[in-house]
Amino acid sequence: MARPRICLLFAGGTIGMVRNKRTGALQPAESAVDIVASFPEIKKLVRLDFKMVVNIDSSNMTPVHWTQIAEKIHALYDQYDGFVVAQGTDTMAYTASALSYALQNLSKPVVFTGSLIPLNEIGSDGRNNLIYACMTATLDIAEVCMVFANAILRGNRAKKYHESFVAVFHSPNYPALGELGRPIALHDWRKKRRKRVLKFNPNFDPNISVMKLFPGFDPKILGKVIERGAHGIILEAFGPGNVAFLDESSIIKQIEKATAMGIPIVIANQMEKGVTNLSAYEAGYNAHKAGAISSKDMTTEATVTKLMWALAKTKKLPEIRKIMEKNLAGEIEE
Ligand code: ASP
Question: What is the pLDDT of residue 52?
Fold first, then answer.
């Protein structure tokens, strides 16, 4: 049987970095190190092609890069059995979430990976991560996922957690999709390879704000963000989505004002393993009554990218509410 065809898209990160001799800090190599040459044995398993997208620290990635990656995959979609995207870990959960909305109804896997140590340094985790990501791209999976240290996570459920080899990412509100052990175990069978029509929609509106509430948060700051013309606002609230509603610290008037102006206010939460529930307390229910939308069990990364994606599609508040509260790509449990 012919070996599966896999396309490796390179979008930067530590995996392709070198150390600056003067400062000791890691920075992108001038020409990306020969990534594919670092794991030649993969050729026994797959026919691998390499495509360069960009070579930057992922802190410099913007929605423009997400669109570029989605467009590349879309253009090459029929030529490959699976895709691997290598990029920096710092914003990987955002890119993976964004791609899960841009490329819905996938019939094959799009697998994100990267490394904590550059490929050209001793003890790099990059080699193994690339090998396991390529193996995952051949498996019976049809969604955007992430591979680190042998674990396969759903891309829009993952969060950067640690800078340790065993747990760079975790998936606080959804079980791992599988482990690349002996044997390979896939746990989630809902998104198997099958012929489906790809829904390609790679645009994002980055004009949003994300604000973390804290005791003493001045509601006027939220008012200023609304006035400056943000198209949408995410508030990381307390507990399961509670906000101040008493006296001068109340933000309810601001939520009402934004809603009246057609600006979506999405309430997320600050808990690591948290689910937003706006009917648990009066402090959340008041926000709901004022028009706020719940992020439910989405990660902040999945919420941010979904709001940008929704705003690129429509500016109508009832439609945005519908999109935000509906499951599009496994990011939310309905
Ligand atoms: N700063 C790097 C980046 O996100 C970290 C990494 O690659 O792990 O590009």
Answer: 92
